[in-house]
Design brief:
The protein is an alpha/beta fold. The protein has a single domain, classed as 3-Layer(aba) Sandwich (Collagenase (Catalytic Domain)), CATH 3.40.390. It is built from 7 helices and 4 strands. A 4-stranded mixed sheet has the order 1-2-4-3, sandwiched between helices. α2 packs parallel to α5 (101-116), α4 (87-97) packs across α5 and α5 packs across α6. The longest helix is centred in the last third of the chain and has 16 residues, at 101-116.
Length: 158
């Protein structure tokens, strides 16, 4: 299920472009591509809420774009975990990389789903980056989070 709690800083037109049904269809396609068996809950919210969650669960007192919360192994087959995405950060990143807020939210969902599947770009040797790039092409998404670090901004889409 996708819960949208739009921050007051987001324009009405930006919020209107985020179809819950469309994002749910994408989430289910991406979840299947990542091969996650369980359901995933997604919260689309503010920088302030992501900062609160980041501080509470990771000890980092700053907002971030996406957080993933895997479920315990005992229930992961039924509920893979939860994602929280900052719409404010997503909107800034979308503008920076020249695509829509909808596409940015989808990029962040994919990234979070890969984390829920057990991948971690901070500790692996490029496996998550390679898988994310492969799925980005399959799901027809703009450049993924990991690819952005190593690419100039003028090469946004492939």
């Amino acid at each position: 299920m996708i819960t949208i709690e739009p921050p007051s800083t987001l324009s009405n037109s930006a919020v209107a472009a985020l179809s819950r049904a469309g994002l749910t269809r994408f989430l289910n396609r991406a979840r299947g591509a990542v091969e996650l068996a369980g359901d995933v809950e997604v919260l689309l919210t503010s920088d302030a809420e992501l900062k609160r969650l980041n501080r509470a669960f990771r000890g980092k007192n700053k907002p971030t774009d996406v957080l993933s919360f895997p479920s315990p192994e005992e229930i992961a087959g039924e509920h893979a975990g939860d994602l929280a995405i900052s719409l404010e950060t997503a909107e800034r990143q979308a503008a920076s990389f020249g695509h829509t807020l909808r596409d940015e939210v989808r990029v962040l969902m994919l990234h979070g789903l890969l984390h829920l599947s057990g991948m971690d770009h901070e500790t692996d040797h490029g496996e998550m980056a390679a898988r994310e790039a492969e799925l980005r092409r399959e799901l027809r998404l703009p450049v993924t989070l990991i690819e952005r670090v190593s690419r100039p901004r003028d090469r946004r889409r492939r």
